[in-house]
Amino acid sequence: MSHESPYWNPKNETLPREELRALQLVKLRRLCEWAHARSGFHRRRWDAAGFHPSQLHTLDDMKRIPFMTRAEWMDAQAEAPPFGPLLTVPPEYAIRYHTTSGTTGRTPLRVLDGMKDWEWIAEMWCYGLWGFGLRPSDVVLFAFSYGTFIGFWGAHYACEKIGCLVLSTGSATTESRIKSIVDLNVTTVCSTPTYALRLSQAASEMGINLADSSVSKVILSGEPGGSIPAVKRQLETAWGAKVCDSAGMTEIGSIMIFECAHQSGGTHIIEDHFIEETLEYEKDTPVSYGERAERVVTSLGRGFIPLIRYRTNDLVVRIPHSECRCGRTGDLYHGGIQGRWDDMKLVRGTNVYPRAVESIVRECAAVDEFQILLTREGAIDEICVRIELKPGREDHWEALRVRLHTDLADAHEGLRFKVEQAVANSLPRFELKAKRLVDQRPVADYGRHDA
Ligand SMILES: [Zn+2]
Q1: Alpha-carbon torsion 101, 104, 106, 110, what sign?
Q2: How far is Cα 276 from Cα 318, in angstroms, rounded to an integer?
Q3: In a 3-state reduction of DSSP, which class is residue 188?
Q4: Ligand 1 centre and the CA of 339: distance in Å?
């Protein structure tokens, strides 16, 4: 492969869409035959729904396949622990065990991968990392815990495959990671958006300006922040580097979308390995380009646990591939994964998405950390945004409070937000996934059903 090619897989990444669909159909049929023959979980559900893989003559026929949900997966796991009847291959053939990050006390989703799956997982990350400009000469630092949570595991193997020098910093402190970045001339850092921000803040406390470091690329995953313009701008300034968004799932083991070096404001779908359907939330009606949808994914690559028409709960807006000029024929999700449908909160009749609030708050450079607090006073729901200012920015408070009050209301049909100042370092800081929304309202059905 030429180092000059912008594509990891030049043929498939630029395949005309008609050929892409034909390739998807061939792979889908093969996957469904495999799953039907080997996985009790899939066969049982498909038999009940009257679906058989021989019914797949065109891609449209996949509508006959019943949706798969996380709840079903969890039930199957509980029915025959530890893995349930999902596996297509006996567990002794597995080489990797991973889980969802989960919440304390809850049983996480458990996945196994064989050698071929693991190779494929790295291959998917290669599409993204190479596409954003990683090359064998890069020195890549992983700010990642290397536990059972799948996270950046696949990216680590992808970097080895590309030929980069890989620095794993599993149990290192923030300070020692910063020292490594400087001492070893790191060119690329892989992290969650929240932690990338934390690293840059900690560095300036140590008197180090990361914008002067050799880092030229920051690869983000695990949270939507990488595609929120204000967050991205803030990170690109703090690091003096290009920031790339990507997203994956434990259920897939890898990423299914990535931002290319053109940074068009969207993330390409790896369509030769995933069929992504964009449907109305919890319904089976497809939506048009540019409309809010729930993504339903079929992974054509993972054999141990086939993922077929899986409802993700992810909120996306699909746009045509032509919106990016890199030449890839894979469509894009505008703004990456925009959040989760069940993250949406209803406050006095208005929909509030935490990500929309974050994108407004992060426009204010004086904000260090924030929290969204939902409470009920009497019968009335109240929403409050609590702001911690950066040191030395206290003078900006009144102007900032007025601006946020107005901007938040304007973006939410006039909904009144309280905007309060929080004491320095009083709000929680997050190393992995941030939880900036706290819902203290007493009714349980406002909460998320799943973690
Ligand atoms: Zn592109």
Answers
A1: positive
A2: 10
A3: strand
A4: 22
Query: Residue 294 and residue 177: Cα distance in Å, rounded?
Result: 37
Mean pLDDT of 425-436: 81
The closest of 88, 91, 89 to 42, measured between CA atoms, is 88
Cα of 128 vs centre of ligand 1, distance in Å, is: 10
Q: 260 alpha carbon to ligand 1 midpoint, in Å?
A: 5
Q: Cα of 293 to ligand 1 centre, how many Å?
A: 21
* Higher-scoring residue by pLDDT: 184, 223: 184
Report which residue type is found at 213: S
Residue 112 CA to residue 205 CA, distance in Å, equals 41
Tell me, in angstroms, the distance from the centre of ligand 1 to residue 245's CA.
12
Phi, psi of 118 (to 5 degrees): -65, -40
What is the rounded distance in angstroms from the CA atom of residue 294 to the CA atom of residue 282? 7
Residue entry with tokens 């990683």: 134
pLDDT per residue over 131-152, tens digit each?
999 999 999 999 999 999 999 9
- Span from the CA of 2 to the centroid of ligand 1 (angstroms): 19
Q: Model confidence over 185-242: pLDDT tens digits?
A: 999 999 999 899 999 999 999 999 999 999 999 999 988 888 888 899 999 999 999 9
Indicate the pLDDT class of residue 100, thresholds 50, 70 and 90: confident
In this predicted model, what pLDDT tens digit does every residue of 306-355 receive, in sequence order? 999 999 999 999 999 999 999 999 999 999 999 888 888 889 888 898 88
Distance 317 CA to ligand 1 centre (A): 16
Query: What does the alpha-carbon distance between residue 90 and residue 234 come to, in Å, rounded to a whole number?
Result: 47
How far is Cα 392 from Cα 383, in angstroms, rounded to an integer?
27
Q: Which two tokens stand for residue 99?
A: 């889980």
**Whether residue 391 has a cis bond before it, omega within 30° of 0:** no
In angstroms, the Cα distances linking 36 to 32, 53, 62, 65, 89 are 6, 8, 14, 12, 12
Task: Determine the pLDDT at residue 2.
Answer: 55
Pairing assessment for the beta strands 367-377 and 437-439 based on DSSP bridges: parallel
* Tally of CB atoms within 10 A around 334: 17
Instruction: Count CB atoms within 10 A of the CB of residue 147.
Output: 13
Taking the centre of ligand 1 as the mean of its atom positions, its distance from the CA of residue 111, in whole angstroms, is 31
d(CA 11, CA 158): 19
